Amino acid sequence: MVEKISLITLGCDKNLVDSELILGTLKKEGYSFTENIKEANVIIVNTCGFIKAAKEESLNTLKKIAAQKKNNKNVFLIAAGCLAKLLGEEIKNEIPEIDAIIGSGDLYKLPGIIKNRNRTIEISDHSHLIYYNEKDRILSDAVSANLKIAEGCDNCCSYCVIPRIKGKYKSRDMESIIREARYLVSKGVKEINIIAQDITFYGKDLYGKFSLSELLKRITEIPGDFWIRLLYAYPSYIDDQLIETIAESEKIVKYLDIPLQHVNDRILKLMGRKTSSREIKILFSKLRQTIPDIALRTTFIVGFPSEKKEDFEELKNFIWTYQIDRVGAFKYSKEEGTLAYHYRLHLSEKIKEQRYEELMKVQKLISKIINKRFIGKKLKVLIEGYINERNLFFGRSYRDSKNVDGVVFVKGNNIKIGEFVDVIIKEAYYYDLYGEKV
C-alpha cells in the first residue's frame, strides 16, 4: 500500500517554497498526498517561528494533530521548519506525541526519516545552506510562483529571530536561479516573485558585490510572457542601478516591497536599522521621480519598546504625506533571543492594538484615494480565478502582490485563468478595483 502524506504549511512564502520542494522530493520516492489529515499515514507540519502569534499557531496545529493520534497511533507526526529549528527538543517535551523534529536546514533528510520511521531530532547548523533542485518542486499555484534567491539574513535587527533560525545570508548561485526561472516559465508560470529575507543583499556574499540588478537582467532575457515582482527589498541597498533596472524593464512590474519598520530616527536606531528617516524619504522621492507609476508597499512595527505618541504620529504623517500605496503593520512581538527582548519600557497590548488600528484606518483611507485615480484607466490584469455567484473573474494588476494586496474584479467574455487581459477600471473600493475587459 502506498503511504499517504499530508503536509501543512504555516508562515511565509519562503516556507511555501520549502513545502513545494518537500512534496516534490517525496513524490519521487513514491509517496502520494492528501489534504485530509485523517487519511494520512504521515503528517508534516512546516512550522513558523517568526513572532509569538506564528509560534502559537504552529504549536496549536501540532497539538491538534497530536490529540487525533490517540485514535490512530500509527500516524507518524513530524514538526519541521523554522519553529522546529528554534525550539528543538522543547517542542518534543511539550508535545510528546511528535515523532520527529526537523530543522529548516535539514529538510532534505525527510525522505530517509519517513522511510525508516526514525524518531529523531535533526537540528544542525546548516540552516543557511540551500538544498535545491527546481524540478523537484510541486507548484501550489500554476499562475504565480515564488523564486527564492537566498536564505538567512545579515541585518540582525533587534526585534528579529530570523538570523538565529536561518543563519547568515547565503546567496544561491546565479546559474541555478536562472535555470529555475526558465523552468517556471516552461511550466506556464506568468508571475515570478523574487523572494528572500532581503533580496537587495543578493550576491554580496557570493560575488563580493550586490548582484540583484545583474540577476534581474538575465531573468528578463528569458523568452516568454511573464511578470517579475520584487519582494522584501531592504532600503539601505536599493541603489541607482537597481532603480534603473526596474524602470527600464518591461517584464519587471513597477512594484517594490520595502519593509521600513518605522520612520522615527530614535526608533530606527533601537531597531538596529541602517537607514535614517531622511534617507528613507530621499529614497521614496527618488523612486517616484524615476518611476512615476511605481506602486510602493511597506510594513511597519507599531508599539516598539519606548515608542512615544509623537513617534507614532510621525509614522502616520509619513504614510499620509508620501501616500504609500500598500501598507501592512505588525504589533511589536517580544521575542526571546532578540536584543529588543531586554529593552525597557515595553508597551501594553492595549496601546499596541490601538496604534495598529489607528494606522490601518489611515492607510485604508489612503488606499481608497489612490484607487479612485485608476477609474477610467486601463490596467493589465493577470487572471487568477472565477466567482460563480457573481459571474466575475478576478486577478491582479502590477500594483497587487498575491495574498497581501487587493484584487481586480473583471467582467467580460473569452477570459481564461492564467492569462493577461487589458481591463478598463470602472469602480474603486478601499482595496480592490472593478473593471471590464477591453
Automatic annotation (TrEMBL):
Signal peptide: none annotated. Residues 139-369 form the Radical SAM core domain. The keyword Transferase applies. InterPro entries: Elp3/MiaA/NifB-like_rSAM, Methylthiotransferase, Methylthiotransferase_CS, Methylthiotransferase_N, Methylthiotransferase_N_sf, NA-bd_OB-fold, Ribosomal_uS12_MeSTrfase_RimO, rSAM. [4Fe-4S] cluster 2 binds at C153, C157, C160. Keywords: 4Fe-4S, Cytoplasm, Iron, Iron-sulfur, Metal-binding, Ribonucleoprotein, Ribosomal protein, S-adenosyl-L-methionine, Transferase. Binds 2 [4Fe-4S] clusters. One cluster is coordinated with 3 cysteines and an exchangeable S-adenosyl-L-methionine. GO terms for molecular function: 4 iron, 4 sulfur cluster binding; aspartic acid methylthiotransferase activity; metal ion binding; protein methylthiotransferase activity; tRNA-2-methylthio-N(6)-dimethylallyladenosine(37) synthase activity. It is found in: Cytoplasm. The keyword Ribonucleoprotein applies. Its cofactor is [4Fe-4S] cluster. Pfam families: Radical_SAM, TRAM_2, UPF0004. NCBIfam families: 30S ribosomal protein S12 methylthiotransferase RimO, MiaB/RimO family radical SAM methylthiotransferase. This is Ribosomal protein uS12 methylthiotransferase RimO. It comes from Thermovenabulum gondwanense.
